[in-house]
Amino acid sequence: MLKLTGKKLTALAVAAISTLTISATAFAAGFTMADAQSMAAKLVPASATHVGTQEDFDEYEFKFFDSTTVTSYEVEVSKFTQAVKEYKMEAEMAMGSRNIVLSAADAQAVVTSEYPNASFHKVKLDMDDGLYEYELKFVTPELRGEMVLNPETGAVLEKELRYNVR
């Protein structure tokens, strides 16, 4: 029977971690920043301009800005899974409203038009800076999401999506 001492066990653990790191790096090596940026650009309007990139050990984060709609976007792409991890959008000039035209069901319909299989955890009429907004939190089999809507027009003020990427 093989007996592992403290030193042998430590050496075995270091070897296993090194192998995993090398394997993960080799797997991600074929996936370039340009590939990830192309993937991210497909999620934003064609009128949005790429304004910056940050690279971490395990992901790329791309920032875009659409000057036509004054909307900012952030997209995180995993180097290892080669999939989008997170998407954020904020319409910087759009605001809530003093008027409430849409019901909570109408606000949910705005979300389900884009995510038909959404299940809602929260649908709340809230007030921000003296203006009403609908805040909706939902899940689908693919993601967890939050949206903030104008209660008069249904316009999306903010959107945050976290994809179920492993």
Descriptive account of the structure:
The chain is of the alpha+beta class and 166 residues long. It is 27% helix and 39% strand. The protein is built from three helices and eight strands, in the order ααββββαββββ. An eight-stranded antiparallel β-sheet has the order 1-2-3-4-8-7-6-5. A hairpin with a 6-residue loop joins strand 7 (143-149) and strand 8. The two termini are 37 Å apart. 19% of the residues are buried. The model is unreliable at 11-28 (pLDDT under 50).
Total count of helical runs of at least 4 residues: 3
Placed side by side, the strands forming the largest sheet appear as 1-2-3-4-8-7-6-5
Radius of gyration: 21 Å
Number of strands: 8
Q: What order do the helices and strands follow?
A: HHEEEEHEEEE
How much of the sequence lies in strands comes to 35-45%
Uncertain residue ranges = 11-28
* Overall pLDDT level: 88
Termini separation:
37 Å
Query: Which shape, going by the Cα principal axes?
Result: globular
Portion of residues in helices? 25-40%
Main β sheet profile: 8 strands, antiparallel
Highlighted features:
166 residues, alpha+beta, eight-stranded antiparallel β-sheet, 3 helices
